[in-house]
Amino acid sequence: MISLVKELWRTLLFLFSIQFWRMGLLWTFSIVFSHHQLIKDFFCSQRPKSYYRCSPCVVPVRPVAVVTGATSGLGFYTAYELSKEGYVVVLVGRSQQLLLEAERKIKAWNRNAHLKAFQVDLSSVESIILFRKSLQQWLSDSDLHSSIQLLINCAGILATSPRTTADGYDQMIGTNYIGAFVLTNLLLPLLESSNVSSRIVNVTSFTHRNVTDMQVDDRTVSGKRFLSYMQYPYANIYEYSKYPGVVQTNILREVPSLLSLSAHFVLKYLGLLQSPEYGVSSIIDAALAPPGTSGAYFFGGIGRTIEPSILSRDAGLALKLWETTSNLLSTTPFGTEED
């Protein structure tokens, strides 16, 4: 009875918060707008650019794909689909138990799957560095080429209360953005040493359209500025730092169950909620797009792309963000690794 009262009270607090209504209204508008783009482009004389899939060459050596967030949702189904394409899939996740369960399930569905699991905390710079070293050692000890062909940054969280990483960053930004930044930079040499075309796929979100202006400085990029707010702006931070989309995953696990179930019901009723099995199609489209494809925003499956927000295409802002993040990380073990 006490737990029920606590859950109802927590639900009411969420229901009357600005952040909840930002999610409910602006996020719904963003997904509707994205689908509107698909429909509009379909009926326009100039069709949107679509890409066909190119299956990887698996001889003489199988290609290697690294997938973060591979224990559930989109990350799990991405790993499964890539295993069917012939990739050796490196599963990256925080929980050893969930990694074992994901590995077992994928092998049950695809008996020919080639998998390797690594336990990594993507909110920790030190953990990512240790992973890079372990991955290099594993590649050296295997009969694979000492390189990787595909990196898919899929991991993400939606934290509804403030908390910090071991490095002192906001945990949501640390996991969703900084972790992906560090991992990508550390794995670049392995991607660049591939003897075939290699690629990085960043799983982003339609919610990025709600970001109309962005302050780029150390306190914002690290998330420390948000930790001092009276009400933690979790919806805004999620939009800044990316992630998945209206796909039925456990990304809303910190939202009261009554509200998350209601949101899933409404979106499913409106035809806007996809299952992970279907939602993963755009990720696989991006992963298997023809060599040379770069900078495209895949959305809606069957190789289709749409235009992202104007702000996301601001090259000057992107450069400033890159430099600020690099400077921020220069005092961490990542700075030493870069040197």
Automatic annotation (TrEMBL):
The gene is LOC107475995. InterPro entries: NAD(P)-bd_dom_sf (IPR036291), SDR_fam (IPR002347). It comes from Arachis duranensis. The chain crosses the membrane at residues 12-33. SUPFAM superfamilies: NAD(P)-binding Rossmann-fold domains (SSF51735). Belongs to the short-chain dehydrogenases/reductases (SDR) family. Keywords: Membrane, Oxidoreductase, Transmembrane, Transmembrane helix. Pfam families: adh_short. GO terms for molecular function: oxidoreductase activity. This is Short-chain dehydrogenase TIC 32 B, chloroplastic isoform X2.
